[in-house]
Task: structure prediction
Amino acid sequence: MDRQKIIIVSVSVIVVLGAIGAYYYLKNKKSAESAASSVQSATDAASQGVLPSIGEAANPLSNKPDINPTSKTNPFNSVKTNPFQ
Result:
């Protein structure tokens, strides 16, 4: 009978410790989610209206010349199959 009592007490202590751990885990999880959402809202508010809309005018390489020498000298451009098979 004494051994059964020890087992019951041990199991109940484990269950109580698990419940306390789950409570603190869920409490910290909610605070982390609220902190993440507040950081996101602060980031959105800080970056709203800061950068002007510049479009494609700011891309200096939109009309770049073709300076790759292999694109003009590749002898296998017209070959449709692999010549090494």
Q: What stands out?
A: Residues 2-47 form the longest helix (46 residues).
